[in-house]
Amino acid sequence: xxxxxxxxxxxxxxxxxxxxxxxxxxxxxxxxxxxxxxxxxxxxxxxxxxxxxxxxxxxxxxxxxxxxxxxxxxxxxxxxxxxxxxxxxxxxxxxxxxxxxxxxxxxxxxxxxxxxxxxxxxxxxxxxxxxxxxxxxxxxxxxxxxxxxxxxxxxxxxxxxxxxxxxxxxxxxxxxxxxxxxxxxxxxxxx
Length: 191
Known about the structure:
By secondary structure, the protein is mostly helical. The protein has one domain (22-190). Helix content is 80%, strand content 0%. Helix 1 (3-35) runs parallel beside helix 8, helix 2 crosses helix 9 and helix 8 (143-167) packs antiparallel against helix 9.
């Protein structure tokens, strides 16, 4: 297979996996939204949004560096990428832990402060994700990341219904996000 064919095939594979992943995430939110009250779904969405905003503020795309750098296969660069990712996770977790109470009050849900603070586990878990999933892209190996991403979203979707029935409050979103992040963390070291 020529380089052009591999690039097209890889691009289609990654693009399709992103569509599937977004569809599974959307499905998860529909399942949760159909079971929870509007108020609880609003709180769940606010917690997820706060996590996303705080994580985005510290994202310098280390995974892209692993792919694009001429030294992307260098063990020292890989070690630095893992160290940065772990430190970013620890710092982001600390920020969420400290801001959990004030964020909950800001959004008018002071009783949910514990959930905002517990969401600090997500970036901490993401901090131990193995960077090889992205480094494999250098050799046009997209399968490991595709499998990990889709499997983690499938498991999060499958967990959403029983958790929503059992918990029946906004905390279901917290647990589903933590399950998805944990599955990626585990599989990233196996792939």
